[in-house]
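User: Good morning. I'm curious how zinc ion would be positioned relative to this chain. Could you predict the structure with it bound?
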Amino acid sequence: MRLVKLTAVALLGCSIPATAQAPDFSKVQIKAEVVAPGVAVLYGAGGNIGLSYGEDGSVLIDDQFAPLTDKIVAAVAGLGAKPVKYLVNTHWHFDHTGGNENLGKAGVTIFAHENVRVRMLAGSASVPPASPTALPVVTYQDGVSFHLNGDRIDAIGTDGGHTDGDTALYWRKANVLHTGDLMMNGAGFPFVDTNSGGNVLHLLHSLDHLIKVTNPQTKVIPGHGPVGTQADLIAWREMIAGAVDQIRQRKAKGQTLEAVLADNPLKPMEKPKAFISADAFVKAIWASLDASGAKPHKH
Ligand SMILES: [Zn+2]
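Assistant: Good morning! Here's the predicted structure, ligand included:
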C-alpha cells in the first residue's frame, strides 16, 4: 500500500515531493471546465471530478480530499448547478473518496462498485477503515444507470484493472466518458494497484469495453490529466498491450523477473518524472500474468 500512497501523493502535482504527506489544501483551487451541456470536470488535488447537473440535481463523480469539500461544493454552485444529490466513487483510493464522509453527512447518497465498500470498510496498512457515513450506500457489480438531467448516465462496473472495483461512467446523450483511474492522460505507465486487486489483463479488458462504448466524438475525462478523446483512450490501451506482450514473451521463454528487470525492456517507454517507473510496471505485469485466470471476465 506504500506505493498507493506515494503514487497518489505524486499525482497531486509535480511540485510536491514524494515525502510530502499532503498538499496545502488551503492553496488548492477547484477549477471547473464544462465539457458538454450539463457535464463538467472539476480539477483540484487528486482524481478528476465529474459532474452532471441540470433540472434534476447534481451527480458528482469522485470527491478528492475532505478539506476540499467546501470548495468543491462552491465550484458546483458556481456553475449554476443544484446541490449534489448523488455521488459515485470510481474506486476506493483516498484521492477519489476523501470527501465521502462530508458529503454523506450532508445527505448525499453514495454509489459504488461493491468492492469499494468492502475495501473502505476494511482499510489497509496505510488507510484507516472508513467511517460509516463515508461508505457507499448503494453498491453494484455490473453497474447502474442514472436517468436525469435529460440524459442517461451509465455507471459501468468494469472488469477492473486499476483495482478490483473500478467504475467508468458514460453519458449517452452528452457523449462523455469518465474513466476513473483506468486511464491517466499523459501519465506514462498505468498504475495497477495489485494490493487492491488490480490486474493489467483486467485493465485491458475494461479498456476494450470502454473503447466499444465510445466513438471518435466522445470526450474522455481521465482519472488524472486533461480531458482527451477516444483516440487517446485507444493509444493508452495499445501502449499497455504492447508492454504486456513484451513481458509475456520473455516470461514464456523462461526469463526470470530479475532477468527481465535487469534488461529493463520498458525503459525506453518511461516518461521522465513518471508516477510509475518502468520497473514498477514490469513487476505489476508480472504479478498480473501470475494471477491470470483468477477472475472471470464479465464483458
Ligand atoms: Zn486510483
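Residues 230-252 form the longest helix (23 residues). Residues 91, 93, 162, 181 surround zinc ion (CB under 6 Å).
Let me know if you'd like a different ligand tried.
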